[in-house]
Write a structure and sequence with these properties.
Chain B: Its main location: mitochondrion. Chain B: It is found in: Mitochondrion inner membrane. Chain B: Residues 61-150, 157-197 form the Peptidase S26 domain. The complex is a heterodimer of chains A (194) and B (217). By secondary structure, chain A is an alpha+beta fold. Chain A has two domains: 28-63; 68-189, Umud Fragment, subunit A. Chain A contains four helices and ten strands. The longest helix of chain A is centred in the first third of the chain and has 28 residues, at 35-62. With 217 residues, chain B is an alpha+beta fold. Chain B has three helices and 13 strands; from the N terminus they run βαββαβββββββαβββ. The radius of gyration of chain B is 30 Å and the shape is elongated. The termini of chain B are far apart. The model of chain B is unreliable at 45-52 (pLDDT under 50). The chains are: A alpha+beta (194), B alpha+beta (217). The interface between A and B is medium-sized, with 27 and 25 residues.
Chain lengths: 194, 217
């Protein structure tokens, strides 16, 4: 039990009852805790944690991130679930995305959803796609407008992509995925088409 | 360590108390700026030579700037960012001039990108649909799923799900949804909340509906 020193005289307070005595013991205990030192340590640890979180954010948003794609639209290149992919965030910003790349993009139908699809055509390219896969063999050819890209899932029978929502602006692309790091049996580059 | 070869008034008497006191004070003064030990050697010479063995100084400056940069990028990505206006499409709400310093500078918040919930009349920043490197600032006129009337003709169009219709306040000089159609919400970069430069225009950017425009339904 540490009793703090006060400048000048220490005035003892006479406790008038047992509960008051307990209170004054409690207050003295409280005053004995090194609050300033604890606050200093807590704030420096907190600052360090904040710096760490900021560093994680910068790296995962602007350099290299990790993605866990789910869904059947990219079979057989990506599994329905359980895959872990490295996402390169530098390439889209620099324009190093081309046909055959698997990209992550914000869905044009719901910006809170992120979808993984393969790029089939860049701006100016002519893309021929099956209109109604599985039911007919009819195809259509479009020219991708300026600043847009055409994305399609590898599994054309079960994919909601540019065949439904049209070419998407390049600005929606958030990352390029080319390397799988889980499951161990499939570590390596994602199969590229053509 | 930092070594200072000093010149003294009276080299013949290096041990004089004045010299000693001067050296002590100067050492203490320099020690405030150096993380490593400062030593002043009493050498009689013509000039004062500062040998900056200051590798630790550069290292701590580098560490501080990297930390500051990382924190600044995080805040700019997630909370609030500062943008200079170029272009005249939002006149008179925001103006631009040819010089970057004298155009308007605005504050944009990023919290709205969490749920993509916007209101009619918000001023938003978004990437141009035909050039992802350019950022535009316009007012949100139509939300997803709404039917709006195009100003010039009497056409009525529906804004698709996940998209929005944007128009600039200065209709004559604005390249907006009337030319490139509704834009996906995913292109939005932030919502402009305040103008912070020039001082005469400091204040909130209000959510405003353009007059003589029929509200959507």
């Amino acid at each position: 039990l540490m009793i703090p020193k006060t400048k000048g005289k220490i005035i003892p307070i006479e406790p008038s009852s047992p509960s008051a005595a307990a209170m004054s013991r409690f207050v003295r205990r409280l005053a004995g805790i090194p609050w300033r030192q604890i606050a200093g340590e807590a704030s420096s640890v907190g600052l360090l944690m904040a710096q760490g979180l900021c560093a994680v954010h910068v790296v995962s948003e602007h350099v290299l991130g990790v993605a866990f794609p789910r869904g059947p639209s990219m079979l057989p290149a990506l599994n329905m679930a359980g895959d872990v992919l490295l996402t390169d965030k530098v390439s889209p910003r620099r324009g190093w995305v081309g046909p055959g790349d698997v990209v992550l993009l914000l869905s044009p139908e719901d910006p809170r959803k992120i979808v993984a699809k393969r790029v089939l055509g860049m701006e100016g390219d002519e893309v021929t796609y099956p209109v109604d896969a599985g039911n007919s063999d009819a195809t259509k050819t479009v020219v991708v407008p300026q600043g847009h890209i055409w994305v399609q899932g590898d599994n054309i029978y079960s994919s909601n992509d540019s065949r439904q929502f049209g070419p998407v602006p390049y600005g929606l692309v958030k990352g390029k995925m080319s390397y799988r790091i889980w499951p161990p049996s499939r570590i390596g580059s994602i199969d590229s088409k053509e | 360590s930092l070594r200072l070869h000093g010149t003294e008034e009276d080299c013949s008497d290096r041990t004089s108390s004045q010299c000693i006191r001067f050296r002590a004070q100067f050492t203490a003064f320099l020690q405030c700026f150096c993380t490593s030990e400062v030593q002043i050697l009493p050498v009689c010479s013509d000039r004062i030579v500062l040998i900056m063995g200051a590798r630790s100084q550069l290292w701590s400056i580098a560490k501080m700037s990297v930390t500051g940069g990382v924190i600044g990028v995080t805040i700019s990505d997630r909370y609030v960012t500062v943008v200079a206006i170029k272009g005249h499409s939002m006149h008179p709400t925001m103006t631009a001039t040819d010089s970057a310093l004298r155009g308007d500078i605005v504050l944009a918040e990023k919290a709205c990108l969490d749920q993509y919930k916007f209101s009619r009349g918000d001023v938003i920043l978004f990437k141009c649909p035909s050039n992802h490197k350019e950022v535009f600032v316009k007012r949100l006129i139509g939300l997803p799923g709404e039917w709006i009337q195009l100003p010039a003709s009497s056409e009525i169009i529906k804004v698709p799900q996940g998209h929005c219709w944007v128009e600039g306040d200065n209709a004559a000089r604005s390249w907006d949804s009337r030319s490139f159609g509704p834009i996906p919400l995913g292109l939005i970069n932030g919502r402009v909340t305040h103008i912070i430069w020039p001082p005469s225009k400091i204040g909130r950017v209000e959510r405003k509906w353009p007059e003589d425009r029929i509200p959507p339904f």
